[in-house]
Design goal:
Order of helices and strands: HHHHHH
Number of strands: 0
Largest sheet: none
Shape: flat
Distance between the termini: 35 Å
Number of helices: 6
Structural class: mainly alpha
Strand content: under 5%
Radius of gyration: 17 Å
Length: 107
């Protein structure tokens, strides 16, 4: 599977809900489209590899949703909204950046 395309699609899905401008949201979709074009034209992948990459992305996001539900103990009703995924990432980043951890502390 093409994780090039999966990454590009994930970036679009994660950023589009937080972009204010309609133009910016439409432009963000050009990233996975251009990536798809690029991986096929440069012979890195066949188009079916791109499709498989999107399946991997969907499975990964579903696993993340199930994990979030099991950790929180609540069912989340996302209805296709992936902003929860970005919000959790931003919250985690802010928590880590406020409480820096050194490598020695991890061991």
């Amino acid at each position: 599977p093409s994780l090039h395309l999966a990454w590009a699609a994930w970036c679009a899905l994660a950023l589009i809900p937080v972009l204010n401008s309609r133009w910016a949201r439409l432009t963000m979709w050009s990233y996975p489209i251009a990536t798809s074009f690029g991986i096929v034209v440069t012979a890195n992948h066949y188009w079916i590899d791109g499709l498989a990459g999107l399946v991997v992305l969907i499975l990964g996001m579903e696993c993340a949703k199930l994990n979030q539900e099991s950790v929180s103990g609540n069912e989340t009703h996302m209805d296709g909204d992936v902003s929860w995924f970005l919000a959790d990432s931003v919250t985690s980043f802010e928590t880590v950046s406020k409480h820096p951890m050194h490598i020695e502390q991890i061991k």
